[in-house]
Amino acid sequence: PIMLSSSIQAALDNPYGKSKRAGEELIREFYGQRTKEESQKTLDLSPSTLVSNAYIYRFPNLFGKWCRPNYNSAVATFCNNIANDLPIQVNDRNTELSLVYIDDVVDS
Q: Which is the catalytic residue, given 16, 55, 57, 101?
């Protein structure tokens, strides 16, 4: 199986969202073409030649113990800045931030 960790940002019409959607499309295309091509070339349908599943997960903002401030986590950035008396930036106070703890994803 193929698993792609995408983002809820894929729904946005900005360069990041477009790149996430493009990655999702590549997985979908690969899944369809690989299955068709491999089955036409040989009769070998073993798991090594046939992509049986492709999973695309659009995760919200994930956080956990390996998150890095100013890199991959708003939570880590906010915590780091608060702990070090640095300013935090909130662009729109009316926007809700959906958060999921990474261990909850792994456990489910």
A: 16
Other Cβ atoms within 10 Å of 73 Cβ, number: 20
Give the domain extent around 43: 1-59
* Known active-site residue 71: no
pTM above the 0.70 mark? no
Dist CA 76 CA 67 (whole Å): 6
pLDDT band at 38 (very low <50, low <70, confident <90, very high): low
Q: Which residue has the tokens 């919200």?
A: 60
**8 and 54 share a domain?**
yes
